[in-house]
Design goal:
The chain has a seven-stranded mixed sheet, with helices on both faces. Strands 9-8-7-10-11-19 form a six-stranded mixed sheet, with helices on both faces. The chain contains 15 helices and 20 strands. The chain folds into two domains: 6-256 and 457-478, 3-Layer(aba) Sandwich (Aldehyde Dehydrogenase, Chain A, domain 1), CATH 3.40.605; 260-439, 3-Layer(aba) Sandwich (Aldehyde Dehydrogenase, Chain A, domain 2), CATH 3.40.309.10. Helix 3 (87-98) crosses helix 4 (102-122). With 482 residues, it is an alpha/beta fold. Strand 17, helix 14 (422-431) and strand 18 (436-439) form a beta-alpha-beta unit. The protein binds adenosine-5'-diphosphate. Adenosine-5'-diphosphate binds at residues 153-155, 180, 182-183, 213-214, 217, 233-234, 237, 240. Adenosine-5'-diphosphate binds next to helix 7 and helix 8.
Length: 482
């Protein structure tokens, strides 16, 4: 891995203000999913180090929460500048450990940085209010306070953005963060921590621990000092963390799995819809929680849409993320490859047709993109998140039917609909039971809008003004005797 600043490649963790290794020197390898080669080793830390990080976070917060918002803004702004300045190195680390094409990795770094910039600005706008009182000679003050120490646990599909989306608002609000990144992609997180320190995030305010997920997660959820858990990952682990956090009644922010419907109506601009699917389905090799999972195409345009989509998919080059022509990198690991293959096998066994797709080269994590037609609701691909580059096309005839089918899931994260009709657009926007709806848009993520799900896709919102509010408690003071 060639870096301009080699000190960004950390093989130690930032705990309570110090870069540390495990007491017994235990490490775990970080593997490049394209080559299978070990690129670094990171410490295996556990409960003791987590407790020390929590303790330091509590102490650091005492001062941090009292700093002027303007000062927190300045530190965050510096962190943003450093992330932008080091884009190439961060993207190199990201592609090496996660696999996504280098250009896409650079895009993620810009997206990650945008959360720090946004929340640097929002830090100044944590307004309270004065409410007309119910009693004479009194005032009602409503103010905002940081929730406290935050335990953050992040996934591997966005190794940079999922961290800044939590840390930006947390630091802006005056909180401290103890973060456990995904074991597959710890290096991006550690590099971001190094840049945070350089930007002036005080010692102890931000710890990043790699290692034993259960031990670290257990210590974070058991702690009375940790007041909020912010988690992005699988629904199963999210539910577990919620259960573990019940005893101390923590605030929960959960961004869990999706099963996004993507509806293409017969009056849609088909070329735009195909472009939308290319982004919503194949970005990050299909490994995002907002990826289109069920593509519903109306009867009249089904064949035309399929043909146009196959043409585009044929042009996607699958390769190592450092290949300048790569459009799709590897899946994260073999378990992911097996899951995607099992969804295809199940669909074909139940009567689907493979409209396009090369076989998966065994022994690698690369998965060539596939287009499946005649998909039906009894297939696993309809009810489970595939998390891979497989576009499954379902047929539908009318709007009521497709809305009912689209909503028939426990998930409620992202959804998409393409139509030229204003009335149909509003119908989909209002009746799709999802936290987010893209109308004639396949890419909806941005720091300025509230990202999050309903139903079993999660709790809370990240980004936007709501993203800051989620890291603050509301306090009400009745000022009497005036
Ligand atoms: P995925 O299937 O996408 O890897 P996971 O939910 O397993 O999703 O992982 C998301 C994050 O949750 C990772 O950082 C992982 O290490 C962490 N994690 C997994 N199991 C636990 C657990 N029992 N307690 C705390 N964190 C966990």
């Amino acid at each position: 891995m060639k870096l301009n600043d080699t000190s960004l490649l950390k093989q130690a963790c930032l705990v309570a203000g110090n870069w540390v290794t495990a007491l017994d020197e235990a490490t775990m390898p970080v593997i490049n999913p394209s080559t299978g080669k070990v690129i670094a080793h990171v410490p295996v830390l556990g409960k003791d180090e987590t407790l020390s990080a929590i303790h330091a976070a509590e102490k650091a917060m005492v001062t941090w929460k009292k700093t002027l918002a303007k000062e927190r803004t300045a530190v965050l702004r510096k962190w943003f500048d450093l992330i932008v300045e080091n884009t190439d190195d961060l993207a190199t680390i990201l592609t090496a450990e996660q696999g996504k094409p280098f250009n896409e990795a650079k895009g993620e770094i810009a997206y990650a940085a945008s959360f720090i910039e946004w929340f640097a600005e929002e830090a100044k706008r944590a307004y309270g209010e004065i409410v007309p009182s119910h009693k004479p000679n009194s005032r009602i003050l409503v103010s905002k306070e940081p929730v406290g120490v935050v335990g953050a646990i992040t996934p591997w599909n966005f190794p940079a953005a999922m961290i800044t989306r939590k840390c930006g608002p947390a630091f802006a609000a005056g909180c401290a963060v103890v973060l456990k990144p995904a074991p597959d992609t710890p290096l991006t997180a550690l590099a971001l921590a190094e840049l945070a320190s350089r930007a002036g995030i005080p010692a102890g305010l931000f710890s990043v621990l790699t290692g034993d997920a259960k031990a670290i997660g257990g210590a974070l959820t058991e702690s009375k000092v940790v007041k909020k858990i912010s988690f992005t990952g699988s629904t199963a682990v999210g539910k577990l963390l919620m259960e573990q956090s019940a005893a101390t009644v923590k605030k929960m922010a959960l961004e869990l799995g999706g099963n996004a419907p993507f509806i293409v109506c017969d009056d849609a601009d088909l070329d735009a819809a195909v472009e939308g699917v290319m982004i919503a389905k194949f970005r990050n090799a299909g490994q995002t929680c907002v990826c289109a999972n069920r593509i519903y195409v109306q009867d009249r345009v089904y064949d035309a849409f399929t043909q146009k989509l196959v043409e585009k998919v044929k042009a996607l080059k699958v390769a190592d993320g450092f290949d300048p022509d790569a459009k799709i990198g590897p899946l994260i690991n073999q378990a992911a490859v097996e899951k995607v293959q099992s969804h295809i096998d199940d669909a074909l066994a139940k009567g689907a047709t493979l409209a396009f797709g090369e076989p998966q080269p065994e022994g690698t994590n690369f998965f060539p993109p596939q287009v499946i037609t005649d998909a039906t609701d009894d297939m696993r691909i309809a009810s489970e998140e595939t998390f891979g580059p497989v576009a499954a096309l379902f047929r539908f005839s009318d709007d009521d039917e497709v809305i009912r089918r689209a909503n028939h899931t426990d998930s409620g994260l992202a959804s998409y609909a393409y139509t030229q009709s204003l009335s149909r657009a509003f119908t989909f926007s209002e009746r799709l039971e999802y936290g987010m709806v893209g109308i004639n848009e396949g890419l909806i993520s941005t720091e300025v809008a509230p990202f999050g799900g309903i139903k079993e896709s999660g709790l809370g919102r990240e980004g936007a003004r709501q993203g800051l509010e989620d890291f603050m408690d509301t306090k009400y003071t009745l000022m009497g005797g005036l």
